[in-house]
Amino acid sequence: MNTSPVTLAQVAAAAGVSPSTVSRILNGSARVDDAKRQAVETAIAQLDYQPNAMAQGLARGRTMTIGVLTQDISSPFYNEILQGVEDGLVGTGFAPIFASGHWNADEEIQRLTMLARRPVDGLIVLTGAIPDDVLTGFAERVPMVTMGHRVVRDNAVYLQLDNEHAAYQATCHLLDLGHVAIAHIAGPPHMGDSTARLAGYQRALAERNIEFNPALVVQGDFRDDSGVVAVAQLLESRQHFTALFAANDQMAIGARLGFYRRGIRIPEDVSLIGFDDLPAASFCTPPLTTVRQPVYEIGFQSASALMRLLRGEKCDPIALPLTVVVRESTQRRRY
Q1: Domains delineated in the chain
Q2: pTM for the full model?
Q3: Which residues form the HTH lacI-type domain (predicted)?
Q4: What is the pLDDT of residues 89-140, one digit of tens each?
């Protein structure tokens, strides 16, 4: 049995046209009569010819690659998004190239510059510390989809995620359970997601006439180990609190370990809530109350939006919902 791939020359011979005519029809640059076009399409179907996507892209002046700037490719949060990006590109002929910025603006700019010089046909930027005006400069050269940045250009689109309101809702959940002294583990201070979540926490306290206590806010870096360290800092400060809101699930899971090592029970002694709803959140002991982000959908929608931009279609900002998911790590305050 012959399993060799069908060639363009074989399609041309079956259709009774030249190979260059087949190539131009596939690339959309040929002006031929309907009979020839039909003959080529029939030959492609009968022979099950699979065009070389890369070759077609190069013929159109494209590399068929998409640059994706993440913060940490090993992070479970970004890992889920990147899976969505890959699935969103299935069947398009485009392949992603991933790069990590490690929450450092200078490193992110270096990675974006590297991707743009390859060059890639489009960029997806997932949060990060790069100023919006710098990203706008990149968007002037290449189509771009951003998360956590508001880049307004004809060839750019951004995903709208209301982190401030979601953090407000998370804090209100704890307040509704009777908690007044609520600690917060914040994310990196130079990132918009972190500052928005801190602002939502502060707004919820202010609306209930609870004075904001800066000593109950500890700095983290979105990694698990910073949650462990933050809990140690809070306990050593001897500040009283009955609930803790961590700015992401990884820090919440780290905090859970920190409490366990001190003999503090969740939720009997301290109620705990995170942000993201990573797969691991459902399997914590106890399962973690958190804010659900449509993490996979973020990646899938980013890839789909970029494909629309590359087709020259107008693409409006994409709003994605964030909701509180209540599990067993929070309970009513014991008086």
Answers
A1: 8-51 (no CATH), 65-160+296-313 (3.40.50.2300), 163-292 (3.40.50.2300)
A2: 0.78
A3: 6-60
A4: 988 889 999 999 888 888 999 998 888 887 889 999 998 888 888 888 888 8
